[in-house]
Amino acid sequence: MRYAADPHDLLRWYDAHARALPWRVSPADRAAGVHPDPYRVWLSEVMLQQTTVAAVKAYFERFTTLWPTVGDLAAAPDAQVMGEWAGLGYYARARNLLKCARVVAEDHGGTFPDTHAGLMALPGIGPYTAAAIAAIAFDRPEVVVDGNVERVMARLHDIHTPLPKAKPELTEAAAHLTPETRPGDYAQAVMDLGATICTPKSPACGICPWMAPCAARRAGTAADLPRKTPKKPKPTRLGYAYVARRSDGAWLLEERPDSGLLGGMLGWPGSDWNNAPDPAPPLSADWHMIDAEARHTFTHFHLRLRILVAEVPNDTPPERGAFHPHHSFRPAHLPTVMRKVFDLAQGALADTI
DNA sequence: CATCCGTGGGC
DNA sequence: TGCCCAAGGAT
Questions:
Q1: CA nearest A303: which of A231, A226, A236?
Q2: Tens of pLDDT along A194-208?
Q3: Which of A101, A104, A137, A147 has the most CB atoms around it within 10 Å of its CB?
Q4: CATH superfamily entry for domain A236-352
Q5: Where are the transmembrane segments (predicted)?
Q6: CA A287, C1' C6: Å apart?
Q7: Two domains, one topology: A7-224 and A236-352
Q8: CA–CA distance from A213 to each of A70, A152, A278 (Å)?
């Protein structure tokens, strides 16, 4: 390479262009001796796993308003936390979030471990998140490797090996650059670079603080890196959902099993989405299949949900699930596919009155 | 090591 | 419209 990339060039850029984020201590405040709250760093890092900053902001504000400390979160009811997480996706994160909060509150006196190994031992914290918390909250010189770092390193060194095979050499490149001074700011600087300049598509190489040492910039390959192994096509699955509304306005819902898709979340009773025909209804009623079906795409398959609706009297005992009173039911506490079903079912029920 | 696990926005 | 993508972790 013509020049070696200098972490201090990136830190200088970060001092001038750092994004202001709700969970972040600005580089100026950090230099003045302000330390981040490990609880807020941890919460933001878990929310940001495979999730955009734009989507996380409102959830982060809501969670920290409801639960200002890890002890507050640890004491929260499971159902409330799952409901507040609804819409953010990857619901195992919410279940592990609560487990982690309770371990920290009960076994660590409400104080987060300050080492990579200590953090790794907690539920929902893997290699990346442990390194990010150790660096950002405790200023440890950990090698933080996320999607941004992989992209930036692949371009700096013009590495054409496809992910995930390229992971070791990208990690080695990242380790070589991680500075002993300001490791927390450095970790956040690489993420800001990846989010605002070294973006996946049409990177803004002309204004990049690492333009000079970037091999992909010289080779003209930046926009094509990192390479990735092609992914499988998604199959389409078919399922059925039953939406029952009681005369008093209560809705029949079911808590899904703790593991698997949408684990621990509320949903409408129905089939297992394996293309099986009409399953047994959750209660005996005059069911109507509505015209519209809910369409939703998950990580690894497309789903088409056929929707059956029914109005039932107040004394109807369900065979599956439980009725949720009208006043306490919040569609926003449903995972998105279930909220889509609700919107369609509610429209159909309104038309029949 | 491959698979499973959500969602909303951008193009 | 369909596909790609985003601060990964658990199994």
A1: A236
A2: 999 999 999 999 999
A3: A101
A4: Nucleoside Triphosphate Pyrophosphohydrolase (3.90.79.10)
A5: none
A6: 41
A7: no
A8: 42, 12, 61
Tokens of A80: 């409330």
What stretches of chain A adopt beta strand conformation (E)?
Answer: 236-246, 251-255, 266-267, 288-289, 294-297, 302-312, 322-324
pLDDT tens-place string over residues A74-91: 999 999 999 999 999 999
Domain boundaries, chain A: 7-224, 236-352
Which residues, listed in sequence order, are joined to residue A243 by a DSSP beta bridge? A309
Catalytic (active-site) positions of A: 45
CA distance linking residue A249 with residue A327, whole number of Å? 9
Separation between Cα atoms, residue A127 and residue A150, nearest integer Å? 14
Nucleotide whose C1' lies closest to the alpha carbon of residue A125 = C9
The reply to whether A175 Cβ lies less than 7 angstroms from strand C is: no
Strand partners, A266: A255
Long-range Cβ contact pairs of A107-110 (< 8 A, separation 24 or more): A110/A69, A110/A70, A110/A71
- Tell me the one-letter amino acid at A34: V
